[in-house]
Each structure stands twice: as C-alpha cells, then as structure tokens.
Structure of Delta-aminolevulinic acid dehydratase:
Amino acid sequence: MSTDPIGVPTPGRVRPRRLRATPAVRRLVREVDVHPRQLVLPVFVREGLDEPRAIASMPGVVQHTLDSLRGAVAQAAAARLGGVMVFAVPRVRDAVGSQATAPEGILNRALTVAAQEAGDALVVQADLCLDEFTDHGHCGVLTPDGRVDNDATLVRYAEMALAQAAAGAHLVGLSGMMDGQVAAVRDALDAAGYDEVAVLAYAAKYASAFYGPFRDAVESQLVGDRRTYQMDPANRREAAREVAIDIAEGADVVMVKPAMAYLDVLADVAATSSVPVAAYAVSGEYAMIEAAAAAGWIERERAIRESVLSIRRAGADHVLTYHATELAGWLAEEYR
Ligand code: PBG
C-alpha cells in the first residue's frame, strides 16, 4: 500500500467511505443499536390532581393522576420498554418525609398501580429518595444545625425500601447519594424477605444544573444545593470509587447521571463494571432538545435518536429517558 511522507495510507486503496456508500452496508456495519427493551420511562404522579398537569419546563411531560399513570404504563408496556421509573409528589411534606413511608403515600400507591398495570411486561422501578417528601427539599433528614445527616437518612431509606417493596416495586432506585445506602437498603430488604427486589444505585450522580426542570416537575422545595452529597462535576476518577463501593455493597445495577455531559464517566464505568450499567438522560437534557426543536434549530427526531444512541455507544446497557415511549415507537418501525 502506498503511504504519504508521514506514513498515512494514501487514498485509493484505503477507503473507509466504502462502508458508508449505501444504506444496506451502513446497516450491516453499525456498531450499536437502540432497542425498546433498553429504554426506561420516568413518570411523575402528583397527589390530589383531577387531571394530568403539564410541566412547563418539560413540554410533553405531565404530572399524572393515578388514573393517567395507568394509561402511561400501558403505553410503555405496549411499546415494549424495559421499565418505568416512578416519582411522586405528595400533598404534604415534613422534616422526615413521612409520606415516603406511609403505605397510602402517593408514591407507594402509584407503585401498586404501576405494578398491576405492568404485570410481567415491565420492570417497575421506584425512586428511593426523600427530596420529594421533605419540607426542606433535601434528599435526607437534617441535623439540628441543618446538615444532611447521613446515617439517620439510611434508616429512613431502609424503611422506604420496605414500603416500596410492599407496594409492588420490582427494583428500587437509590438516588440520594448517601454513603452506605446500598448496604442499608439491601440488608433491610433481605431481612424482610424481599430478596428478589433489585437495587439500582445511582452510583455516580453529579450535582448538576441539568436537573433544573425536574425540580419543577416535583415542585421541589430546595433552597441551596446538594453539593455535600452529589458529586462534583469536575471528578472523573471519583466515579470509579463510588461504583466500586456500590457494587461491593450489593448493587444489582449502577447508574451514571446525567448522561450526555458525562459520557466519559459512563465509558469508564461501562469498561469496568461487573453489573449492568444504566444512564439517565435527565430533565435538562430533555428540555434542551425540546426547546431547540421547538425553535426550529435542530431536527427533533434525529436529535433524540442521536442522543440516546450516543449514550448506548458510550456503554450504557439501558437508558432512562423521557422520550422512551415515543422513541420506541420509531424503533419498532425499524425492527419490523
Ligand atoms: C432525586 C432525583 C433527582 C432527579 C432524579 N432523582 C433530582 C436531584 O437530584 O436534584 C433528577 C432527574 C432529572 O433531572 O430528570 N430524587
């Protein structure tokens, strides 16, 4: 083969474009795919609504009633998604997040509805965190001087896991970033006989501006930030440490969150994890695509497909995305 003066093969024989020349050859050599089973739809339920309510910063996403949740879960199952992740907004909040553990609390009721509707078709996942339930908006309970009390929070998380398992959750998603949370929840589940309920650890969850619209979706009461428990966006190596700890504590799945701005972290985790790896395309990622598409600045469908494909390419086994059901519909055409 001929080469140029610095050794790079010259065109003529070496032509990567040959494998891009037709749709058929491009299809043959694609390295990754997105399949509906790899998509998980996050859903919001709000206590006390008569009808679904739009979320202004997430056009197309709503706060569901228990009734409309049923419909969304049925659609997710029909689209052959991998699962749904349930979040809920209670009417009453207090210092310890009592409604998170009340059997009749809105999240637990929503989980029962979702599990009934899903049957064996979907993995019903529960957000396990206190921020929607506390009047101060933090992910844990506070010490008298206002700090997030790690170990007192673990007690609440263990209680919450039991309430969610009793409600019918197949998997609990620990999003609070407390130290020791996976072990605390695993021990509590096992002691109560819920050894088949899986634990997904938000292992590398960063203190991110991209959660902005989510705070709207759950009407967050937070003043301040979560930097004493969520990770610093500057830290890549630290993610490996968090993942190793969570796997050692018994996590069944580890997650990286957000997704698009953290694909380097995701690739690292995917390369070393011994358990499946999830990534969460968060509310701000959704909002950016929707806003730019609404302005006519990007092609909506292509941008959605490319973003999820990129998250898969970086190594996610499955992806939480608010676009899950719609995207699965487009993919179904391809797999026919
Ligand atoms: C905490 C939680 C958050 C999100 C998922 N779980 C908010 C936060 O950590 O502040 C964000 C999800 C999103 O932005 O889509 N319960």
Q: What stands out?
A: The first helix runs from residue 23 to 29. The beta strands are 39-46, 53-54, 62-64, 83-89, 123-128, 171-174, 198-205, 253-257, 277-281, 318-321.
